[in-house]
Specification:
By secondary structure, the protein is an alpha/beta fold. Helix content is 36%, strand content 19%. It has two domains: 134 residues, Leucine Aminopeptidase, subunit E, domain 1, CATH 3.40.220.10; 302 residues, Zn peptidases (Aminopeptidase, 3-Layer(aba) Sandwich), CATH 3.40.630.10. Helix 4 packs antiparallel against helix 8 and helix 11 crosses helix 14. About 2% of the residues have low confidence.
């Protein structure tokens, strides 16, 4: 059965009633070629709402497309054509995101809809393709993040990245424990000590332009039980997605490669499991990062910042134009922002403005948080070692985590830290994302890098 999802305008020719924005109705038998037509309401607001920090026009289109697809899917319609809604790229994004869900390990999978663009000119087709590629890139991140931890160990993750990105011309280097030891990555290796799974460190290179690279660093804790500082059992299964930063970085690189973006990007991914055992790092242990700084591990559940510290140190070897790390770093970020936006800490006003604009375009917003010396002091005023891995004071957990990372950023380097703990999932409120890990903010990172590559 062929179905067309039409713009709101058609509805006024059918009925005097108005469909509310984000809602839909299905009409049967109106056309000989198309047996069903889904009509959706679109709130045609301005391009950008300064208070909401997003392009409401694009977001309303994504929401309307999602409503139509879900309505048709509910009546078992699987072959869907969609008009361009005056923004084929936004339509393409929403189509791929709405039409996909994680069901990798079901013995009987649900049939997913096949979605195409209806009656489009060449320019709309080009924009539609861009949108679908970006949506697919985010779906890759969603799939990786939702994969059970026993089926996505550090070694399996590395192999999957090779299979995914090598055919696209991305150079994938997989470093082992011995390499990390030679690099003196004591903080990274300390986290891995509690697991029988060997740590891996990935260095991915996508080079389609000369010059110094942009560097992304993705947190790759493939399962986080908290180590000796054990997490509560309730919802611990969600910690399979504690590698969402790594998943977003991989999805971003996939998107850039498929879009053939003329840029030079390096991605660094430290991969570990954080588990309790007789060999695990203990609260109060002191470890040494690659740059020689000593760290007292007061809380083994603050492990993400330890592996990122050594990766940030290593990024100096790459002579980066800037460094951006992305991590499900702190529960405090969920408390601060919920799932509305990614928290951003940065030493560059200019880079933040670009990132904020990208978030507005994609609908996947960011919000700037403070990076003040006030927070550094809560970690660094110690008699016997350089840093604690957690603050001695109360509150501001996301801010002190960012202050910790700042101590390992290459000198005089522009840097952004994205804390995505709040937007990780699985209870997504965006209408075009099903329940499960979100893959956010993959599309924002793609847009962010595209803007600077041009």
């Amino acid at each position: 059965m062929e179905v067309v999802l039409f713009f709101l305008g058609l509805f006024y020719q059918i009925s005097g009633n108005k469909i509310k924005p984000g809602k839909s109705r299905i009409f049967w038998g109106l056309d000989n070629e198309y047996q069903a037509i889904a009509v959706v309401g679109v709130n045609n607001k301005s391009e950008k709402n300064e208070l909401e920090l997003r392009s409401e026009k694009k977001e309303n289109i994504r929401t309307a497309v999602a409503a139509g697809i879900r309505a048709l899917d509910a009546v078992d319609v699987k072959n869907i054509s969609i008009e361009n809604f005056s923004d084929a790229e936004a339509v393409g994004e929403s189509s791929l995101l709405t039409g996909w869900k994680f069901q990798e390990y079901k013995s009987k999978k649900d049939e997913l809809p096949i979605i195409n663009l209806f009656d489009a000119d060449d320019e709309s087709c080009k924009l539609w393709k861009r949108g679908t590629l970006k949506g697919h890139a985010q779906n890759i991140a969603r799939r990786l993040a939702d994969t059970p931890a026993n089926l996505l160990t550090p070694s399996i993750f590395a192999n999957q990245v090779k299979e995914l990105l090598t055919p696209l011309g991305v150079d994938v280097k997989v470093y082992d424990k011995e390499w990390a030891e030679n690099q003196k990555m004591g903080a990274f290796l300390a986290v891995a000590k509690g697991s029988i799974e060997s740590p891996k460190f990935l260095e991915l290179t996508y080079k389609r332009k000369e010059g110094d690279p942009f560097v992304l660093v993705g947190k790759g804790v493939t399962f986080d039980a908290g180590g000796i500082s054990l997490k509560p059992a309730a919802q611990m299964d969600q910690m399979r997605a504690d590698m969402s930063g790594a998943a977003c970085a991989v999805g971003t690189l996939y998107g850039l490669a498929k879009l053939e973006t003329p840029t030079n990007v390096k991605v660094l991914i430290p991969l570990v499991e954080n588990l309790p055992s007789g060999s695990a790092v203990k609260p109060g242990d002191v470890v040494f990062a690659r740059n020689g700084k000593s760290i007292c591990v007061d809380n083994t559940d603050a492990e993400g910042r330890l592996i990122l510290a050594d990766a940030l140190c290593y990024s100096a070897e790459l002579k980066p134009r800037w460094v951006l790390d992305i991590a499900t770093l702190t529960g405090a970020m969920m408390v601060a922002l919920g799932d509305a936006a990614t928290g951003v800490f940065t030493n560059s006003n200019d880079l933040y403005k670009i990132l904020e604009s990208s978030g507005s375009e994609t609908g996947d917003r960011v919000w700037r948080m403070p990076l003040w010396k006030h927070y550094t002091k809560k970690l660094s005023e110690n008699a016997a070692y350089d840093l604690n891995n957690i603050s001695k004071g109360r509150g501001g957990g996301s801010c002190t985590a960012a202050a910790f990372l700042k101590e390992f950023v290459p000198e005089k380097t522009n840097w952004l830290h994205l804390d995505i703990a709040g937007v990780m999932g699985p209870d997504n409120t965006e209408p075009y994302l099903s329940k499960g890990m979100s893959g956010r903010p993959t599309r924002t990172l793609i847009d962010f890098l595209e803007r600077q590559s041009s």
